[in-house]
Amino acid sequence: MRAFAGYSCLMLAPVDNEAVVLAVLAERYGLPMDRLVPGEIAVAEVQHPSLPVRAFARHGGAVLAVAPEDAELLRRHLTGPASLPGALEQTAVELHGHLFSGVARTGVAIPPPEAEVTVLDATDPRLPDWVLGHFTGEAWVVLDSDGSVLSTAVLKRYDDRVREISVGTAERARGRGLARSVVAAAARAVLAEGRAVLYNHAPDNYASAKVAEAVGLHEFGRYHAIVPDRSIAIEFGEDDSTSS
User: Fold this and answer.
1) How many CB atoms lie within 10 A of CB 27?
2) Distance separating alpha carbons of residues 197 and 164, to the nearest angstrom
3) What's the mean per-residue pLDDT of the chain?
4) pLDDT surpasses 70 at 11
5) Residue 233's pLDDT band (boundaries 50, 70, 90)?
6) In a 10 Å sphere around its CB, with 0-12 CB exposed, 13-18 middle and 19+ buried, how is residue 45 labelled?
7) 57-70 burial by CB neighbour count: b if 16+ within 10 A, else e?
8) What is d(CA 150, CA 228) in angstroms, rounded to the nearest whole number?
9) Is 106 within 8 Å of 183 (Cβ atoms)?
10) CA separation (Å) from 99 to 17, 66, 90, 107, 218?
């Protein structure tokens, strides 16, 4: 266990950070990000082992990738970028699948944490159940006076170029701004390693959005996917939390 003392680091330029995250998402979701143009929509017929339909929207444009056997169905509902939400909803109904969406955020101008943050190993038994057995590496936490964990940020490590931050706060400690401190500490640590930061949340998770905005993680796009089973959605980034 050690106290977080901040990092001195050369942070990535914003455009480079976003380029890394976009490249990672393109590979993870099988999306043709090179065809992403503001105000336009592009569809590619590309198989994915888990995701029959997926999309990424940014700056009023969108790219989609769809299994070839479902392409005609999807195109029947698409008339332009504004039709994307409805088209995905209708396609999900007709495919008997589950549609999920998320807000993708990143940033490099991350302020120091306001509260004292301690770094624990992700196997520390004081950590909450959603962390234990599901994450490896470090956990950035705010501790109560009795040593119990009030707020936690940990990292998903599915790609070596980027780290995705997950955060949660004990119900009794919410509303005190602790999530901002652990997210800031984790993000600064990731950037100090020369990696890009990714922070995802559901479009209606306003508490998580508020945390991200407060530490300089801005929205740079929204992803969507249709899956045959919700367990796959959680694996690929569906936010099922209620509050940070």
Assistant:
1) 12
2) 6
3) 90
4) no
5) confident
6) middle
7) bbeebbbbbbbeeb
8) 36
9) no
10) 28, 13, 10, 27, 24
Say which DSSP state 115 is in: S
Distances (CA, A) of 14 to 11, 32, 107, 209: 9, 21, 6, 19
Q: What angle do the packed helices 178-192 and 206-214 form, to 10 degrees?
A: 60
Q: Mean pLDDT throughout 96-101?
A: 93
Q: Secondary structure of 47-76 in the HEC alphabet?
A: CCCCCCEEEEEECCEEEEEECHHHHHHHHH
How large is the average pLDDT for residues 80-88? 93
pLDDT over 70 for what percent of the chain? Answer: 92
Rounded Cα distance, 195 and 104, in Å: 16
CA-to-CA separations, 57 to 36, 61, 63, 186, in angstroms, rounded: 8, 6, 7, 27
Name residues whose C-beta falls within 8 Å of residue 182's C-beta, 6 or more positions apart in sequence: 113, 117, 140, 141, 142, 151, 152, 153, 167
CA 159 – CA 109 distance, rounded (Å): 22
